[in-house]
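User: Can you write out an input/output pair for a complex, sequences first and structure second?

Assistant: Here is one pair. Inputs:
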Amino acid sequence: MKTAKFGGSSLADAAQFRRVRSIVERDPSRSVIVVSAPGKRFKEDHKITDLLYLCSAHLQYGVACDPVFGMVTERYCAIRDELGLSVDLESEFKQLRKKMDDGISQAELVSRGEYFSARLMADYLGYEFVDAADWLRFTLDGAVDRDASYEALARLATGRRVVIPGFYGVMPDGRIRLMQRGGSDITGALAAAALDAEAYENWTDVSGILMADPRIVEEARSISYITYSELRELSYIGAQVLHESSVFPVREKNIPLNIRNTNDPEDPGTVIRESFENEEDKANRITGIAGRTGFSVVTVAKSGMSGTSDAFRRVLGYFSKYNVPVAYTTGGIDCYSCVVESKVLDPYKYAILAELQREMEPDKIHVSEHLAVLAVVGRRMAFRSGSSARIFGALAERNVNIRMISQGPEELNIIIGVEEKDYREAVRALYSCCQ
Ligand code: ASP
């Protein structure tokens, strides 16, 4: 049994619903379907979830919300009518509208985006509708109560073909609670874990995780196989991939996660697992590249500092005091460099520098700004000579000056700092090493 989650762009209109049905029908093991609310049909269009948030704001400020609410109801009715379904949306919308007048919580109103999407999809596929409110439970502190939720879903869905709305669940008192934006990914992962699915398919509008940012490398190919640790390295530095809380439930149960493209269903997409054995030979040495601009490097130098046992801890301590996470560190003898995101550092920069100066009395403190940090990630780089030579050779060929290098002994990633102006060229150079 597989759990397949379809994102908003896969449900934007009736044509997308048809694509989803043909994907589901192609593989009978796709028996648990999790859906988002309909997303944008074209660039200037609105996501249903955004419209519902807007409705809620209108209600809150006492502004008539019917024009916006009408946009929502029309979208669902158009999908239903075009697909020839018979779900009685009108009476549900009427009840909802009344609840809105009587005082509905924002969470409940916004959750209706996924709810109606799932109602229509269940009818269209001939599957049963299982409401997230009937199994996905939160604890009082807002965390997912996994034991209770898994048990409830196993009871409701084992051996059945069901469609489940993503993005929400219920608090212990029965009130609806939303997840973070994009939370249907998490619902899908929880459903897969609850039912011990053989795979969790996440259907979206790209063919998996790309090896590099397509805004910089137009021809970037997708990654076939990636481990969770590599994924973490890439997303830490900026790759736009799944949120960590959405991979956690399936990772924990060693369920493979497969990112697929609804608009190109033949493409196998990206498979993510803890480790790969058989596929290993086909894997590239470099799995992917990610990076971001907007970093500063604070370097502290003091003669004799490396001979003391607590200097490094003290340097880091000034950042932690202001809750400024240090992304990477590098160093030399008697000198430590801390790589920090500039927008996080800036509000506390002078306070940190002043304290460092006063209390550590270093010989030199220096801040370099406008740096970009790139991570070259690949499990197959480790213990294989020549990876760095290729990477740095490619950068040199394109005249990219390297300002910082960091590589741990695990060699899952090589971190490279360059000037912001060289960032795009550096990504292209590194991509050329991927093949
Ligand atoms: N519809 C919600 C959002 O737009 C949740 C989701 O799509 O996953 O964030």
